[in-house]
Amino acid sequence: MATPAEIAERVQAQFGTAVLETVLEGRLPHLVVEAGRLQEVCAFLRESPELKFDFLSAVAGVDLGEQLQAVYLLYSYAHHHAFTLKVNAPRDNPVVPTVSGIWPAADWHERETFDLMGIRFSGHPDLRRILLPEDWVGHPLRKDYKYPESYDGITLRRDEEDWPDPGAEALYK
Question: In a 3-state reduction of DSSP, which class is residue 32?
Fold first, then answer.
C-alpha cells in the first residue's frame, strides 16, 4: 500500500508541471492536475504496477465560484490504497476530457456531473442528461442556479409557510 505522499511523488516525478497543486493533509489527500493531461495521469495511475488504481469510485463536480472542479475518487483493490484527483475548469466553458476509456464506470458518473453541474466531458461517448429531462434549463448544483417556478405545467415552488410541511413534524414524534 502506497501512502498519499508516495502516490503524489510518483505522479509529480512522471508529470512535473502538469501537477498544479498537492494537498496531503486532511481527509482527502489529492492532486490538482491540468485538464489537458488528465487522461495521461489517469492512465498512469491505472497502469502503474505500484499504484494500480483499478477502480473509479466516483466523479463529482464542485462549484468553487470562479471556476468549477471535477473530482475523481480512486481506489486500488490490488494495493488497498485510495487517492483523489481534481481538475479545475473555467466557469464560462467548463470542459474536461473524459476518463470513460480508462475506467468505464466514468460513463455514468460524468453524465451525472454534466447534468447537475454543467461540466462537459470532451470525448465522452454519450454525454447527455441522466437525471433531469433533456429540455431542463441549467444545472441545479451550481451556486448561481435559479430554481424554476414550474416545469411542464407542474408548479415547483412552495410558499415559505408550506415548506417544510407543518404536518411533517408529527411524523417525527
Answer: strand
15: number of Cβ within 10 Å? 16
pTM of the model: 0.88
Which three cell numbers mark 84?
483523489
pLDDT tens digit sequence for 67-123: 999 999 999 999 999 999 999 999 999 999 999 999 999 999 999 999 999 999 999
Residue type (1 letter), 160: E
Amino acid in the structure at residue 37: R
Write down how long the chain is. Answer: 173
Handedness of CA 126, 130, 136, 142 (dihedral sign): negative
Cell triple for 2:
502506497
Task: State the DSSP string of 41-88.
Answer: HHHHHHH-TTT---EEEEEEEEE-SSEEEEEEEEEETTTTEEEEEEEE
Q: How many CB atoms lie under 10 A from the CB of residue 14?
A: 14
Q: For residue 125, say if its preceding peptide bond is cis, omega within 30 degrees of 0.
A: no
Q: What is the Cα gyration radius of the chain?
A: 19
Could you give phi then psi for residue 77, rounded to 5 degrees?
-70, -30
